[in-house]
Design brief:
Glucose Permease (Domain IIA); mainly beta; nine-stranded mixed sheet; single chain
């Protein structure tokens, strides 16, 4: 064991709390390896973890006077844990211990013997086990889950964990947090970031101590900000969670989260505090800088009227105020709210500040362009194979076009579009009898900036004669692209003019449609193998209703669309996309899919097409309306012989569930031993057994799940693997209290609990310790063994009822 010279630091680490001093809890080190509020599967980390140098056996101290209220021992979770009720009424928790002090260890072992099992959870009244501040009450270890460390919690009198640093504990920390990624996510149908409906994740660079984004970001609609960041401290390489994050827009604080305290009943809300959607898509572990519906955590303050989200004005009228976007008023009362008018169109400054507890902080700055992209329509005055004349650029009345960018591309003999190249336009005077010229009196809305009769191209082209057109050379160009920039700096969607080649493309037109479900809208990506003459026609049919979605151009052969899922909810939705190329050739894409509505407060089930798989939702399964479906995966190859039958993909897999759901699969008639099967899910490239509640009457197997995944049936017909490591069979030993060590492993269904594994010595049941991470069970006798032959018997039963037995005889001299 590595010994550090940290005893003297106990005098420094004393802090005053309610007129009583708390001590640092161990002499292992003054360093932290995990912070309060960090992410764990479906829960928050409720403590600080103290570094023990990957060793065990350091002393732990009573941080204050009080009494031992609870002793708990389990092979899982906290392992060996002590709960110290302090004189202040607060509770100090020490977990993952190697052992307790002699008195407490004796009490724990007596309780184990009394109830006949390893796991105990015993409470004590005040006065039974008093302790004084600074008293050694145990020793650090690695029991339960995790490598050697001390998990140290502080809880209030109502058993709610809070950040121990709030009671004055300190570590050496002069390092500001690092910001790794920044995300902006469209939150409602039609909202966009940089011209798309998908979240945008950007990596900032650090310049002169500030994190910055290289380019402005254009947003419209309701958008949420999130940040992926970590903290570090002096003397260790561990990465910690941040303590505080703040969002400012134009120097006005719009949202703040600060990880001070929570209630254990709120653990599941970590999937709402962090961005579950981005995490499930492999984009990072982001802190949301806005609050979503259903999130009742108390970390947040200074929220604007959109709970931290950014909303652009629906029009450019000044002074518009954001309405209440369905925010639950019951969640408002304990928090302060800053009024946030909807952001005006144009440039804004966004700033994110992330801090650790000791006020080391980092700043991220970004330029926002707020406002929706707009549509332009170049009006053709004359179109010849070698030149194009534009009479006007139509745009919405509120947009004053300040700049027009033009570019050309070529289509080769098959389907490829060459890189875009800028082209130069010039003015050409025409006679007043020629139609389509820039006549602002006859086209009052064609040029929003008509007051000064400027054109819609570069500055040097703005001044134009009254009777004029914009002429562009077309030599070798088959496609002309226009993008306009308005008075707010906002870019338009691209507009295209086609100049078809003399010969038709030899490849038939083919289109492909990719669906991407967000929590409340569907994004469509329509791709063609050649340029389209116009936007494709997009039509949804559901329940007798028809919904048409406009196509938004990204490239001549690539279009986007967005449709609210509420508009197309149904068990049978038909999608039709029709497109036409520049030569008049047509292609139509048709498909059907399920978009079933699951609502809070109502029970609902989703079924696979073969009716052999069901996902049942209770009235508390979802936080908000969920639109789901189940696919039968006929493409993925089953490389695991334990998995039988089809793979069922339940969606959406990137939306957090509240109280979970129940997955039920019908098993085939070929299964003669249904206890040997269970429900499993795919975790990357591995299949993980969940549970096996078997109903033989209905020939089904079920499991409760807390996320939607790829599910299948897994068979476990193999017994656990057992190996007696010490004493080895046939061994002759002199040690009267030998350490018994047995390797025990089941790689499929696993063990229900430690009671599924039994060690007996000469027929007597042993209170053995099971370590699920190291796959061993061990026991050390409390009394000397008698000389002679002894028999160790091991029995293990997995969750599918497969049993393994081993016997090992050894001799004690």
């Amino acid at each position: 064991m590595i010994k550090g010279n940290f005893i003297w630091l106990l005098l420094i680490w004393q802090v005053t709390v309610h007129a009583q001093e708390y001590l640092w809890p161990t002499d292992a080190s003054p360093y932290m390896t995990s912070a309060f509020g960090e992410s764990r599967p479906r829960r928050f980390h409720a403590a600080i973890d103290v570094k023990t140098w990957n060793q065990v056996g350091y002393k732990i101290f009573a941080v204050g006077s009080g009494y031992i209220e609870r002793i708990a021992i389990s092979p899982f979770g906290y392992g060996r844990a002590l709960y110290l009720r302090l004189d202040t009424g607060e509770i100090a928790v020490y977990a993952h211990l190697e052992k307790f002090n002699e008195k407490l260890q004796t009490i724990a072992e007596q309780e184990q013997e009394r109830i006949g099992r390893y796991r105990i959870d015993k409470y004590f009244s005040p006065g039974v086990l008093p302790v004084q501040k600074g008293e050694v009450i145990g020793y650090t270890g690695q029991s339960g889950i995790g490598v050697p460390h001390l998990h140290f919690e502080l809880r209030d009198s109502r058993n709610r964990p809070f950040n121990p640093f709030l009671r004055g504990f300190k570590i050496a920390d002069t390092i500001p947090p690092a910001i790794t990624d920044f995300a902006l996510s469209p939150l409602t149908p039609g909202a966009m970031v940089n011209g798309d409906f998908l979240p945008v994740v950007l990596r900032p660079s650090r310049q002169n101590g500030t994190w910055r984004l290289a380019e402005p970001i254009q947003i419209s609609g309701k958008v949420g900000v999130a940040v992926d960041a970590y903290d570090k401290a002096d003397g260790v390489e561990n990465r910690f969670a941040i303590y505080r994050a703040q969002l400012f827009v134009d120097d006005s604080l719009q949202f703040q989260t600060q990880y001070d305290r929570f209630d254990y009943s709120q653990n599941k809300f970590i999937e709402l505090d962090r961005d579950y959607f981005l995490k499930r898509r492999g984009l990072g572990n982001f802190h949301r800088l806005y609050r979503v519906a259903g999130n009742a955590l108390g970390f947040y303050s200074q929220l604007n009227h959109a709970d931290g989200a950014l909303i652009s004005r629906p029009d450019e009228a000044e002074g518009a105020v954001v309405p209440n976007y369905g925010i639950d008023e019951r969640l408002r009362e304990p928090r302060q709210y800053q009024p946030l008018p909807a952001l005006s169109w144009g440039a804004h400054r966004l700033r994110v500040v992330v801090s650790d507890f000791f006020d080391n902080h980092s700043v991220l700055e970004a330029d926002l362009l707020v406002g929706p992209p707009f549509t332009i329509a170049p009006q053709i005055a004359d179109h010849q194979p070698t030149r194009l004349q534009i009479s006007s650029i139509q745009a919405p009345p509120t947009r004053k076009i300040q700049r027009l960018e033009a570019a050309a591309a070529t289509v080769n003999g098959r389907t490829i579009i060459s890189p875009w190249r800028p082209i130069t336009a010039k003015w050409k005077t025409i006679t007043s009898q020629q139609t389509g010229f820039f006549d602002h009196s006859s086209h009052p809305d064609s040029l929003p900036n008509k007051a000064d009769s400027r054109s819609t191209v570069e500055k040097q082209l703005y001044s134009a004669p009254k009777d004029s057109v914009l002429e562009l050379p077309l030599t070798g160009a088959h496609l002309i692209r226009f993008v306009a920039v308005d008075q707010y700096g906002l870019r338009s969607h691209p507009a295209y003019i086609l100049n078809p080649p003399d010969r038709k493309l030899v490849t038939p037109l083919l289109i492909d449609v990719e669906k991407d479900f967000s929590p409340n809208f569907l994004r469509l990506l329509i791709r063609a193998n050649q340029p389209l003459a116009s936007a494709p026609a997009i039509k949804f049919s559901s329940g007798g209703k028809i919904f048409q979605a406009p196509g938004i151009p990204q490239q001549p052969h690539r279009y986007l669309a967005s449709v609210p899922l509420a508009e197309i909810a149904g068990d049978s939705v038909q999608l039709e996309v029709a497109a036409e190329n520049m030569f008049g050739q047509m292609d139509v894409w048709r498909e059907g899919f399920v978009n079933a509505l699951v609502q809070p407060g109502r029970e609902r089930s989703l079924f696979a097409a073969d009716a052999r798989m069901r996902v049942a939702f209770s009235d508390e399964s979802v936080y908000w309306p969920l639109y789901g479906r189940v696919h039968i995966d006929t493409v993925t190859r089953l490389n695991d012989p334990r998995v039988i039958g089809p793979i069922y993909r339940a969606e959406p897999q990137d939306v957090a569930l509240n109280e979970g759901a129940t997955v039920t699969l019908s098993y085939p008639d070929t299964i003669s031993q249904p206890r040997q099967i269970g429900v499993c899910y795919r975790d990357r490239n591995e299949w993980v057994f969940i549970d096996n509640k078997v109903n033989t009457a209905n020939r089904t197997v079920s499991a409760q799940v807390f996320s939607l995944e790829d599910f299948a049936i897994m068979r476990d017909s193999e017994p656990p693997r057992l190996h007696v490591r010490s004493p080895q069979p046939g061994a002759v030993i002199r040690e009267r209290r030998p350490l018994f060590v047995v390797e025990v492993n089941d790689s499929t269904s696993g063990f229900e609990s430690e009671q599924s594994i039994e060690l007996r010595l000469d027929g007597q049941l042993l209170i053995a310790e099971y370590d699920p991470e190291r796959d061993v069970v061990q026991y050390k006798p409390k009394k000397d063994l008698l000389p002679g032959i002894h028999k160790l018997t091991v029995r293990a039963e997995d969750r599918c009822g497969n049993v393994a037995r081993r016997e090992a005889e050894f001799t004690v001299r």
